[in-house]
Amino acid sequence: MATMMRWDPFQDLRDAQEEMAQMAQMAQMSPRLAHALGLQGQPQGSDRATAWAPALDISERKDAYLVTVELPGVEADDLDITLEDGLLTIQGERHFAHDSSEQQFHRVERRYGAFRRSITLPAHVMAEGIQASADNGVLQILVPKAEEAKPTRIQVHPGPIEGTAANGEDATPS
What we know:
Blueprint: H1 11-27, H2 31-36, E1 56-60, E2 64-70, E3 79-84, E4 87-94, E5 113-120, E6 131-135, E7 138-144
Antiparallel strand pairs: 1-2, 2-7, 3-4, 4-5, 6-7
């Protein structure tokens, strides 16, 4: 069985930029070099928020779609889920948990800060039936499918329809 890995084409660039920022802290990089590396204007140290996007899965059942999002450390009150014009948007913020001046961090790999994920939903969903729940850092959004329009068989009767003549004129007496 093959394992699917999520590929982020910019992760290597972000890692290199973070390493350069750490080196800049240690060696007091010149402002010109910091500017050339795109590091100017970024706060240094443990209060620096790094952009992130939580991983999500979308699965389909017979009656609904299920969106599962990994959000460890994000409180339900910090989430905002909306559906507008078929676009399901999940946004929120994960706060940096250790905001203590007594701690010095040597490495911070966990992402924190604001995030936003948007998913285009098929047209045949019931917006009023969407449900969301969060448990142990996992958000689940259940998007029910609308009833599919079933074809109706129309029976053909011999002769004209009541109230019409064979030539298409109204046969109702005046």
